[in-house]
Design the sequence.
């Protein structure tokens, strides 16, 4: 509210100065008979017309501008009108008045042209405004005296200051737009990674449990119900993850980010609970010296993803594992996450379901971004182990 109020006050102050400068033109140069009160200045209605056109270009409310009143039109037409008036005064060799109002209007139009016109038009419209301003002094004195040259130098300084300020603000706007675009892109990529992690985990589980159900249908049909319940649960969770992620992608509200499918240390227990298939044992060993309240949320979420990806890879590449152990422990002030299995690489999943090996690459990027380390490789005596170590606080 304070920022909006400050901007409104600054805008009101600028508009007031512009109108006051235009009023000076009227007061100084308009007499009762429609001629200038200054000597040898000639009729002034032409200058007043140019001032009115310029005021319309600068002050026309944004919400009420017709489509044809683009920044190019707003800045080029008043500049052309001013330049034509100057040219007319030179052709008839008759001085024509100009005042501070026209000067301020042309500077304002220069600012608008440099900051708001499309790139190809900004240079053209800005040059028109600057050129119209530079030739103003010759209306009053066509001899190019020292006074005229002094006014030209002042005009050059003003043009440089205004154009530089407008270009700087335009550059800031561009950098801000690029930063917002990159942030949105990064956020969408993160959401896509989240969706992949969750859905791939659940769909892989569905594949494995479906294969188990097909084998049990012929030999142990009476024990199919728990397997089918696991398939139903995995499918429901996959759909919920997709629904949450798509909802966040379509929702522009700031609080939408809180509904992203993320996990924490508490969610690891739920993840493990529904993982095991018949003949498989999964255990969770947790060091109670690691209270979740002391760990940053991003560290907990990354630890959750490590466990999730490791379990998904076990289903894909080591479905014959009989024992899987997940450990969370305090490693000299750091969180250590280990997922180990005793599988021999036996799997019956289709080749298309094996994945492209990008999961661990993404995990390594996520872990190292938090100042941690990730290693994966074969265990001594058989099996595979994934180990990640995180700092307890983000560096």
Sequence:
């Amino acid at each position: 509210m304070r920022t909006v109020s400050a901007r409104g006050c600054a805008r009101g102050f600028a508009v007031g100065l512009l109108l006051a400068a235009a009023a000076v033109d009227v007061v100084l140069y308009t007499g009762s008979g429609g001629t200038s009160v200054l000597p040898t200045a000639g009729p002034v209605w032409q200058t007043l017309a140019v001032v009115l056109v310029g005021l319309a270009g600068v002050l026309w409310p944004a919400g009420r501008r017709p489509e044809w009143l683009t920044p190019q039109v707003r800045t080029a037409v008043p500049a052309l009108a001013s330049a034509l008036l100057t040219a007319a005064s030179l052709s008839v060799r008759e001085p024509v008045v100009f005042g501070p109002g026209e000067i301020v209007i042309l500077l304002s139009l220069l600012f608008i042209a440099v900051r708001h016109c499309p790139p190809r038009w900004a240079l053209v419209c800005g040059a028109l405004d600057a050129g119209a301003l530079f030739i103003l002094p010759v209306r009053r004195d066509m001899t190019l005296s020292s006074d005229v040259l002094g006014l030209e130098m002042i005009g050059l300084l003003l043009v440089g200051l205004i154009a530089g300020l407008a270009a700087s603000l335009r550059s800031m706007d561009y950098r801000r737009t690029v930063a917002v675009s990159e942030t949105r892109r990064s956020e969408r990529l993160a959401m896509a990674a989240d969706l992949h992690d969750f859905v791939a985990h659940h769909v892989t589980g569905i594949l494995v449990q479906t294969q188990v159900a097909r084998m049990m249908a012929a030999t142990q049909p009476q024990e199919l119900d728990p397997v089918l319940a696991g398939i139903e649960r995995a499918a429901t969770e996959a759909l919920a993850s997709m629904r949450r992620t798509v909802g966040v992608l379509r929702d522009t509200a700031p609080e939408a980010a809180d509904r992203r499918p993320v996990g924490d240390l508490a969610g690891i227990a739920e993840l493990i609970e529904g993982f095991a298939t018949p003949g498989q044992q999964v255990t969770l060993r947790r060091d109670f010296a690691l209270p979740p309240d002391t760990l940053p949320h991003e560290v907990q979420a990354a630890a959750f993803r490590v466990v999730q990806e490791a379990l998904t890879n076990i289903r894909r590449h080591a479905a014959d594992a009989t024992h899987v152990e997940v450990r969370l422990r305090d490693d000299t002030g750091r969180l250590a996450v280990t997922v180990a299995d005793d599988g021999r690489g036996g799997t019956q999943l289709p080749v298309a379901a094996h994945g492209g090996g990008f999961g661990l690459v993404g995990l390594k990027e996520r872990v190292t971004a938090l100042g941690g380390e990730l290693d994966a490789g074969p265990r001594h005596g058989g099996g595979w182990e994934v180990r990640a170590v995180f700092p307890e606080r983000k560096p």
User: Anything to note?
Assistant: The longest helix spans residues 146-219.
